[in-house]
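Re: Re: ligand-bound prediction request (bumping)

Still looking for help on this. To restate: I need the protein modeled with pyridoxal-5'-phosphate bound, output as structure tokens. Inputs repeated here so nobody has to scroll up.
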Amino acid sequence: MSDISKPQLMHFYDEESAELAIAIVQYAMERIKMDPPPLDQPYTLSELQRIVGQTITPQGRNGLEVLREFVDELAPSCISVDHPLFLAFVPGAPTESSVLFDLVVAASNICADFWLEASGAIYAENQAMKWISDLAGMPPESGGVFVSGGTAGNLSALVAARSRWRLRANGALNSTRPLIIASGGSHSSIQQSAIVMDADIIKVPADHRGRTDGVALGRFLGILSESELSRVCAIVATAGTTNVGVVDDLAGIAKHARDLNTWFHVDGAYGAAALCAPSVRHLFNGIEHADSMIVDPHKWLYGPYDSCALIYRDPKMARLAHTQHAEYLDISQQDDDSLTDQSLNPSDLAHHLSRRARGLPFWFSLAMHGTDAYSEAVEATLAVTQLGAQLIRDSKHLDLVLEPELSVLVFRRIGWSPAQYQMWSDRVLGEGLAFIVPTTWDGETVLRMCIINPRTTVAGLAQIIASLL
Ligand SMILES: *Cc1c(COP(=O)(O)O)cnc(C)c1O
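Reply:
Sorry for the wait, this slipped through. Here it is.
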């Protein structure tokens, strides 16, 4: 039975809480300043059951003891994405300031769904978003929202695209199955969005480097029937494929989207961070025509998980697709009068309602370090990638499979079987040296290193190359 005379059974702040607060902040400080952090490795379920056991009890336990359990037993079984030789997938490398500010975001208890509730947080998030949309050359009225990741961003953008496609047809297409056309190197989340939306998806073949250009798309559109063309609700290009880091011909693809009068979405979850790097900015020409684009601050823009900037050319289009209606929500709805001096409700711009102000850690770091520091950090990783490519070319036991365009190195260990790659990958993770997993390219098992962390050095890459002898 609950005791109504003790409403503060859990909600209180006493001396013990203060002690816990100090222990938590102390741990956070120590973890944030680790350079490098331990790489760590996954435990099996039975190991965790043996080491950690049951953590939750009816009576509860001392907070310091539960914290110790996390620090000593749970955290070491989670690989540190910010380790400088974590080069698998797309790593993360949040700035110290963004992680520190994440603590502030949690403590502030902001629900950043409506302007009514969170105007200041939304204002700051929008400035960080505007830095990106200006780099892309999007119009001043563009805008969007930070969602949990690229997968959520792609889905929300494509739902907005489908909504516009149907609205423009005035009901004539309401029961027609939409068709999404995606570039050959598009991410699995585009395919997954099509499944969620019950849409058809067709991938345009990419060239030998994994890049899709306007000519290939044009040839492909040429073989579609009139009725198939009328079902196209969006064309999706990839600005930095995840597997090999190449940018599609955005200008060429944009032109076809315009000619077809359809939505142009650019998935830059990984690569569009390099919009801020002058040396590769030209690769993104054409992105300014996007109806929507995404980029993940939790990847190459040095924010903590989880955060994806989803930007629309015309955010009011997104609002038509995503606004939720309910009696108790009406108070938060924005009419045209209120919008003269407010920003759009972030909740209305994606598939979500309540939301963490997950753009704020990125905003804080950007405001503190300045945008030039971001350009320099991304340029530094591009330079290390080029030097790494040279090391691979110079190594007799390795072949560079593709010239790197952004920051992904794809290479082969001459003579190795898939099993040998896997054994090597397991070994270097076990030794705490590096986390690199094999991928496939053109049907062949190869190695892939994705370099986004400014702490990743050429000397570190040389260590990895030596371990492949
Ligand atoms: C990582 C990635 C995604 C998915 O992003 P999440 O944040 O992991 O959901 C989508 N597209 C591309 C190109 C990516 O690299």
